[in-house]
């Protein structure tokens, strides 16, 4: 079992069910991320319908094995438009977030899945459940934007 790169110890059990997202501490907010890596995939948005399709074409900084950003702290030097998600901007971003993303699920008033590390107690369960991007991405360096449509992936609802 690999260790969890996200700090999730010493948190109140099921804290996300007891207070609104706007009242979470920084540590609680960060702990909600399941580590799936799907928000680091490129999306295609239909200008007319607003529909968003997720592709398996990954951001240049994503590590396909750990599903983590390789330069998280200084990522904006390389990817200036990478979003810093917060309770304040979730309303405007939730629509494009992956359907299994914990932030989107809670924003929609839904619960977390059993494979979420906060429930399973293990970071690996997101990979075991097949929900993460581990081993399934292609690089945006090798994939011209006109081909992204060929790499659209389906997500669980
Ligand atoms: S999609 Fe959501 S849960 Fe998954 S890595 Fe991104 S922020 Fe975390
Ligand atoms: S810069 Fe890092 S956090 Fe932002 S999308 Fe790319 S891999 Fe993800």
From TrEMBL:
Entries under Pfam families matching the protein: CxxCxxCC
Coiled-coil residue spans: none
Signal sequence range: none
Entry's family note: Belongs to the UPF0260 family.
Protein name, as recorded: UPF0260 protein ACFORG_09670
Species: Lutimaribacter marinistellae
């Amino acid at each position: 079992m690999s260790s969890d790169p996200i700090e999730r110890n010493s948190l109140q059990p099921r804290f996300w069910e007891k207070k609104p997202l706007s009242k979470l501490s920084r540590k609680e907010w960060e702990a909600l991320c399941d580590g799936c890596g799907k928000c680091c995939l490129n999306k295609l948005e239909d200008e007319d319908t607003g529909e968003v399709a997720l592709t398996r074409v990954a951001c240049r900084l994503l590590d396909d094995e750990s599903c983590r950003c390789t330069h998280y702290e200084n990522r904006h030097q390389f990817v200036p438009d990478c979003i810093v998600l917060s309770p304040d901007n979730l309303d405007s971003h939730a629509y494009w977030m992956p359907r299994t993303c914990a932030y989107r699920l809670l924003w929609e008033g839904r619960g977390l899945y059993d494979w979420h590390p906060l429930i399973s107690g293990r970071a690996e369960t997101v990979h075991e459940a097949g929900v993460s991007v581990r081993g399934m991405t292609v690089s945006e360096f090798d994939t011209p934007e006109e081909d992204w449509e060929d790499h659209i992936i389906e997500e669980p609802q």
